[in-house]
Design brief:
Keywords: Membrane, Transmembrane, Transmembrane helix
Structural class: mainly alpha
Strand content: under 5%
Shape: globular
Number of strands: 2
Largest sheet: 2 strands, antiparallel
Number of domains: 2
Order of helices and strands: HHHEEHHHHHHHHHHHHH
Length: about 375
C-alpha cells in the first residue's frame, strides 16, 4: 500500500509540475474582457489600498484600463459607458460589476506578473490536500480512490479553472472547506469554532464569485432543519456561528456594494446580467457535453452511495452535500446561461467533503483482535 501511495503522490506532483510549466507561459493579455477587469480591480488596490473597493471609472485617471483595452484592440475604449464588465449606477457612477476578492488576491503580486502566481498558489493548496488525502487512506481501494480524485483535482486547476481568474481561488477554498467539513462532522463533539471557520471560508468565496453564496445553502439546511424540529440550543449555536462566519467572510463584497451600488444588498451587475429562471433544453444539453457533467455525475453518485451505505458522520456529510447539490444544481440548471465552470465549485466542494469524510472514518477493529482483548467471563477465571 505504501508503494501505491508513493505512485499516486508522484502522479499528483507530476501533474502539478506540468501545470506550473504551462501556467508560466500564460499571457495576461489574452483578449478576454474579464481578465482586464479583474486586473483593473487589482490595480486599484495597489494604488489606493482599501480605497480600491471604490471602482468608479473616474479613478482611471492614470489611463490604466484604457491602456489594457488598447492592448486587446477594444474599439470603443474612449466611451466609458461601453467599457466591458462595467455598469452605470444611480447617481451617474460607472463601476466594475465583479466582487473585489479576485482583484485583491491579484494585487498581492507585482503588476505584470499577477495571474501566474495566483494560479500556482491555488494549485499548491489543492495539491497539498490531494496528497493529504492519499496519506490518510488506510486501504488499497481508498488509496486508489484518493489518488485518482487528487490527480483530477490538480488537473482541473488548469482546465477549466483557466476560464476565469475567479475560479482558481474558489477551487482552493472549496478544497479546504471540504476537508474542514469532514473534520467537523467526524467529531463526536462538534466545534463551534470549526463550523464558524467553514462559514468564514465559504463567505470569503463570495468575494470571488457572487454565485458562491449558494455553496453555503446545504449547511444552512443541515443546521436549520434539525433546529426547527428539536429547538436544540447546541444546534442553534452551531447555525449562528456558521451564519456569522459567512457574513464576516463576505463583508468586503457587502462594503464594495454599499460604496459602488449605494446599498450593501444592491448588486453592481446590470440588468442584462440578471437572468430570470427558465428551463432551457439547449443549455441543459451543453452541460451534458461538458466536463462539468462528469463532475456532477461523480458528486451525485458518491452522495447517493454514502447516503445508502455510509454511517455516522459519513452519512451526515452526504446529507450536507445533497442539500447543497439540490440548491446549486437547481439554480444553475434553471437559468438559460452556460459557462464551462459554473457548477465546478459545487461539484468540487461536494467531492472534497465526501472524499475526506470517507477517509476520516474510524478504523475498523477486526473481530478476532477485539475478542483477544475482551475480558474473560467469570466461568473462565482460573482457579
Amino acid at each position: 500500500m505504501k508503494a501505491a501511495k508513493l505512485v499516486f503522490g508522484l502522479i499528483c506532483l507530476a501533474i502539478l509540475a506540468s501545470n506550473i510549466w504551462t501556467m508560466s507561459r500564460w499571457s495576461e493579455a489574452r483578449g478576454v474582457y474579464d481578465d482586464i477587469c479583474y486586473l483593473r480591480q487589482a490595480h486599484l488596490f495597489q494604488r489606493f489600498g482599501a480605497g480600491g473597493l471604490d471602482t468608479n471609472v473616474v479613478k482611471d485617471d492614470d489611463r490604466y484600463f484604457e491602456g489594457k483595452m488598447k492592448e486587446i484592440a477594444f474599439p470603443e475604449w474612449k466611451d466609458q459607458l461601453r467599457w466591458p464588465c462595467h455598469n452605470p449606477m444611480r447617481g451617474g457612477k460607472i463601476v466594475l460589476q465583479y466582487p473585489p476578492g479576485t482583484g485583491f488576491l491579484l494585487a498581492l503580486f507585482p503588476e505584470g506578473h499577477q495571474v501566474v502566481p495566483l494560479y500556482i498558489a491555488a494549485s499548491l493548496v489543492v495539491c497539498g490536500l490531494a496528497l493529504a488525502g492519499i496519506g490518510l487512506a488506510r486501504t488499497l481501494p481508498s488509496v486508489v480512490g484518493a489518488g485518482l480524485f487528487g490527480a483530477l483535482a490538480v488537473y482541473l486547476m488548469i482546465n477549466p479553472a483557466k476560464a476565469s481568474y475567479s475560479i482558481a481561488p474558489t477551487m482552493a477554498v472549496c478544497a479546504v472547506a471540504g476537508f474542514l467539513t469532514a473534520v467537523w462532522l467526524s467529531r463526536d463533539k462538534r466545534s463551534v469554532l470549526l463550523v464558524a471557520l467553514i462559514g468564514l471560508l465559504l463567505g470569503v468565496s463570495v468575494n470571488f464569485r457572487l454565485p458562491n453564496a449558494l455553496l453555503a445553502a446545504g449547511y444552512f439546511l443541515f443546521l436549520g432543519i434539525p433546529f426547527l424540529w428539536t429547538r436544540s440550543l447546541a444546534t442553534f449555536v452551531q447555525g449562528l456561528a456558521f451564519g456569522a462566519g459567512v457574513l464576516v467572510g463576505m463583508a468586503p463584497t457587502l462594503v464594495a456594494q454599499a460604496i459602488n451600488a449605494g446599498s450593501a444588498l444592491a448588486t453592481t451587475y446590470g440588468s442584462a446580467d440578471v437572468v430570470a429562471p427558465a428551463f432551457d433544453l439547449a443549455v441543459f444539453g451543453q452541460y451534458l457535453r461538458d466536463m462539468q457533467f462528469v463532475l456532477i455525475v461523480l458528486a451525485i453518485g458518491a452522495t447517493l452511495w454514502l447516503l445508502r451505505a455510509g454511517e455516522g458522520h459519513m452519512r451526515q456529510a452526504a446529507l450536507v452535500v445533497s442539500g447543497n447539490l439540490v440548491v446549486n444544481l437547481g439554480f444553475f440548471m434553471s437559468h438559460p446561461i452556460f459557462t464551462p465552470y459554473y457548477v465546478v465549485p459545487i461539484a468540487m466542494l461536494s467531492l472534497w467533503t465526501l472524499s475526506f469524510a470517507r477517509l476520516l472514518q474510524p478504523a475498523a477493529v477486526p473481530e478476532a483482535a477485539s475478542a483477544r482483548h475482551e475480558p474473560a467471563s467469570l466461568g473462565a477465571i482460573p482457579q
